[in-house]
Amino acid sequence: MSLYLSIAIIALIYVVIFQIAKASEYVSILKGEENSRKQNNKINGFLMIAFLVLGFIGVYVCNDLLFSKTLLAHEAASIQGEKLDQMLWITLAITGIVFIATQILLFWFAYKYQENENRKVFFFAHSTKLELIWTAIPAITLTILVIFGLRNWFFFTGDAPKNAMVVEVTGKQFGWIFRYPGKDAVFGKKYYKNIDPATNSVGILWDDKFAQDDILTEQTMYVVKGQPVKLIIGSRDVIHDVGLSAFRLKMDAVPGIPTTMWFTPKFTTKEMREITGNPNYTYEISCDQMCGNGHYSMKGVIEVVEQEEYDLWMAKQKPQYFVAYPEKDPSAAPATTVAKDSTSKATTAKM
Amino acid sequence: MSHEAVLHGHEGHDDHAHHEHHETFLSKYVFSMDHKMIAKQFLITGMVWAVLGGLMSVLFRLQLGYPEASFPFLESILGKWAKGGQITPEAYYALVTTHGTVLVFFVLTAGLSGTFANFLIPLQIGARDMASPFMNMLSYWFFFAASIVMLSSMFVETGPFSGGWTAYPPLSALGDASPGSKSGMDLWIIAMALFVVSSLLGGLNYIATILNMRTKGMSMTRLPLTIWALFFTAVLGVLSFPVLLSGFILLIFDRNFGTSFYLSDIFVNGVGALSNEGGSAILYQHLFWFLGHPEVYIILLPAMGMVSEIMSVNSRKPIFGYMAMLGSLFAIAVLAFLVWAHHMFVTGLNPFLGSVFVLLTLLIAVPSAIKVFNWLTTLWRGNIRFTPGMLFAIGFVSLFISGGLTGIWLGNAALDIHLHDTYFVIAHFHIVMGVASMFGMFAGVYHWFPKMYGRYMNNSLAYIHFWVTMAGAYMIFWPMHYEGLAGMPRRYFDYSIWESFKQFADLNRFISTVAMIVFATQLLFLMNFFYSIFKGRKVTTQNPWQANTLEWTTPIRPGHGNWPGEIPEVHRWPYDYGKDGVDFIPQDVPVGENETSH
Predict the structure, then answer these.
(1) N or C: which end of chain A has fewer CB within 10 A?
(2) Interface contact B163, partner A, CB < 8 A
(3) Cβ–Cβ of A124/B381 closer than 8 Å?
């Protein structure tokens, strides 16, 4: 019922506006075309300058309300982020000046040069000098931005430092899988046809000598504060994207084509809670590439911790090989006869 | 019958308009070969799509603004797609995808170019019709067929395609990965293929007409800037749409015939490992964006051209720097083909290749800046008449500045690596190509409506329409920059589980509310448009805006063939406003003896 009522009210509003507009047209016909044009010019000329003033007030209010919610409100959580923020500020300053100047000119001219019988139009068809000036200035400014930008770009996409820890990230509909290389610091080979969602979610080839100490975790990744992290990124099904807004980086996860990205976290999760004043703060990994109907829920978490805490966490992790084949686990209860069987199983699991 | 009449018209220019060929309803309004009628067909079909596409955005904004609320009326309209009055994620993604596809291709490509290229090219260059009126008619009917197929995709059981308007594989290739990628996607591709055919038939025709059918004296540098803009638009379309089509054909092969152009190493939940190996999902993105980026300019250039023309007419002043305007159009058209990979900075692109695309992308800011400064100088010391068309032209420039400047942020890979696929991008492209081009289209409709229908639109409604839309557009999209700077990703159904993004719930509600108001205001425009066709104030003078271009030398309601007598001869460029103290000198007026040359 209320639906019909609101439809009726809206329809009524349309009819009223429409009738007023029609009436105003009759009035303007009575006044004569010339007069009504003058009046329209006056009203719209005034609205132009009003829009400019109210617009800038609006920009100010918007900034006042929202700036503290952006990432620029506090320090970036990675050294990449620091550089990127600096770059953002430079770009904001340059484009901000241009924005303010050109919008003022646009609306000011519109207001000032509204039709006036006494004004003689200035026949001004071109000026090579002016045109050269406003070709050169943007060109020079942009060169500066390109140089700044490319220096950062090559730093961001360049090689990770030698001491970087390496984590493999795999996206799937709709979650994240992390693989640590284990004690040998080398990842075992993998092949997608070997994937078993329950025990081998990335398709590790168990008979590879580097494979058996690989550690798999889901949804949460642990990294160490101050130590560079290199991510090797892939996907199991469709394209995903590892979005790390707190670190100001992202990289696509493409099936069949591994990509990489590295960053150095500056603050632990705990420190970040203090900096942001949010006791629930977590470093979130958002999927930033449309990947299906669960795209919006594809959330991962990065825990940035001190080295000791990391070591404690790492010590508790069980290599995936022993998760897949519990009977092979030396720390588990000995069951020699079963273990023999599973050896053959492990080798055949390859194909 | 009417086909013959048209052919005849080209052979004998002069007697064509006089002979009374019998026109049936079908040949006049449906299978018409008159460029003016085809333009109106494009315009009205585009408007239908704009309403549908806009309505879709209202529906998904409803979800974003009020994620917890339940709207029982939605269930009665959408059925299983809005169980319990809440839009499902499936429906949400279908709405977002279709909104994008429809607005980019059906409204701002076909609706904009289709309307104004058809309407203005023959009228402004002084031709009786297009080079091939028959191809022109086909162009519309292929578009119509594309529309029907796209519409039908919304009624298949698994729903329309829902993987984003860019349709990246593997998501778009695998029905098992997303229900929207089942038969809905097949129909989506067929619709797009038909659309490409339509746009090629149109584009070739526009180019041929502009190059070959100008009236006597209309040299290329005497063409109005609208025509130049439409010319470059057509060239861009003809060169880039085939590449898109080839990309789609490979996608069809991957979907239906077991090839692996885009597929490799895939394990789908609940299905298992696929046999495809060796393909590259990135290849599709290269093919897609090779159209996708020129497409941005296919949308923007016609608006730029019309804004230049309307601004000059209503400032009573020549457009400043005609040659620079032309040169910058050309530069933008060339650069449009060399920047596509800036959509792919975070795909793992070779960093050196990325750096080349950064340079070329930021280079576009130079011709864009020239255009803006030239428009500003055109206003300077003019005598401005605020017709509705002029208001939208000024609005266009404001939006083009705002959205263009954020392009400098996103085109720089070092910033894009953070801002890519966030709301910052949504804000950027909606302002600079979505709303700005829409403003160009509105400007064009208001300005040329008297020529199209021999009547005026209602001014008061037009002013309300402009000011609400202008303020609303900024209120919707300006705050989105802040969401983007907080890293908020696009294409999320719900943000409530995200610690970093749920803080924007209030803002999202605000944006959604404004979006609904702005949408409601567009209905006012529609009412005005259709009412004025039949009941608007009649145009009584041949040249109501006191403009110089040739379309205003035709009768108030031009028939098929445009000029009843001879086609006028052109003696000057189209921007002699305020020259030697004379308010305006139309193009067909011979140059006087003592006249200074500009």
Answers:
(1) N
(2) yes
(3) yes
Does B386 sit within 8 Å of A44, measured CB to CB? Answer: yes
- Long-range contacts (CB closer than 8 Å, 24 or more residues apart) made by B510-513: B510/B65, B510/B475, B510/B479, B511/B61, B511/B64, B511/B65, B511/B475, B511/B476, B511/B479, B511/B480, B512/B61, B512/B62, B512/B64, B512/B65, B512/B66, B513/B65
| A159 Cβ contact partners less than 8 Å away, ≥ 6 residues apart | none
CA pair distance B24, B528, nearest whole angstrom:
28
Contact list, A251 vs chain B (CB under 8 Å): 346, 348, 417
B463, B388 in Cβ contact below 8 A?
yes
pLDDT (tens place) for every residue of chain A, 351 residues total: 677 888 899 899 999 999 999 998 888 888 888 888 889 999 999 999 999 999 999 999 999 999 999 999 999 999 999 999 999 999 999 999 999 999 999 999 999 999 988 888 889 888 999 999 999 999 999 999 999 999 999 999 999 999 999 999 999 999 999 999 999 999 999 999 999 999 999 999 999 999 999 999 999 999 999 999 999 999 999 999 999 999 999 999 999 999 999 999 999 999 999 999 999 999 999 999 999 999 999 999 999 999 999 999 999 999 999 999 998 888 765 555 444 444 444 444 444
Task: Count how many pairs of residues, chain A against chain B, have C-beta atoms within 8 Å.
Answer: 384
Q: Determine the CATH number of domain B28-263+277-576.
A: 1.20.210.10
- Assess contact for A171 and A291: CB atoms under 8 A: yes
Give the pair of three-digit tokens for residue B172: 């778009």
Q: How far is CA A11 from the centre of its chain?
A: 42
C-alpha distances in Å from residue B374, one per residue of A132, A292, B153, B233, B312 = 12, 45, 45, 20, 11
Residue of A nearest to B574 (CA): A125
Q: What is the DSSP string of A191-248?
A: -GGG-BTTTBTT-B-TTSTTTTT-EEEESEEEEETTS-EEEEEEESSS-EEEEEGGGT
DSSP string of B484-517, one letter each residue: HHTTPBSS-S--TT-TTTGGGHHHHHHHHHHHHH
Which residues 427-466 in chain B show a CB within 8 A of chain A? 458-461, 463-464
Contact A55 B474 (CB under 8 A): yes
User: Cβ–Cβ of A88/B315 closer than 8 Å?
Assistant: no
Q: How many CB atoms lie within 10 A of CB B159?
A: 25
| Peptide bond just before B493 cis, omega within 30 deg | no
Do B462 and B528 touch, CB atoms closer than 8 A? yes
The alpha-carbon gap from B355 to the nearest alpha carbon of chain A, in Å, equals: 6
Among chain A residues, CA nearest to B459: A25
Which of A53, A123, A129, A248 is best to mutate for the B interface (most B CBs within 10 A)? A123
Q: Give A330→chain B minimum CA distance, Å.
A: 32
Chain B neighbors of A195, CB-CB under 8 A: 267, 273
> Whole-angstrom Cα distance, residue B339 to residue B358?
8
- The full set of domain ranges for chain B reads 28-263+277-576
Does the predicted TM-score (pTM) go above 0.90? yes
* CA-based nearest distance A326→chain B, Å: 24
Are A114 and A42 contacting, i.e. CB atoms less than 8 angstroms apart?
Answer: yes
* Segment 115-134 of chain B within 8 Å of chain A by CB: none
- Name the 3-class secondary structure at B427: helix
A contacts of B525 (beta carbons < 8 Å): none
Q: Residue A81: its chain B contacts at CB < 8 A?
A: 418
B123 and B213 Cβ atoms separated by less than 8 Å: no
Two structure tokens written together for B333? 């058209």
Is residue A297 helix, strand or coil?
A: helix
d(C-alpha B56, C-alpha B5), whole Å: 43
What ipTM was reported for this prediction?
Answer: 0.92
Which chain B residue has the Cα nearest residue A134? B370
Q: Is the distance from CB of B9 to CB of B16 less than 8 angstroms?
A: yes
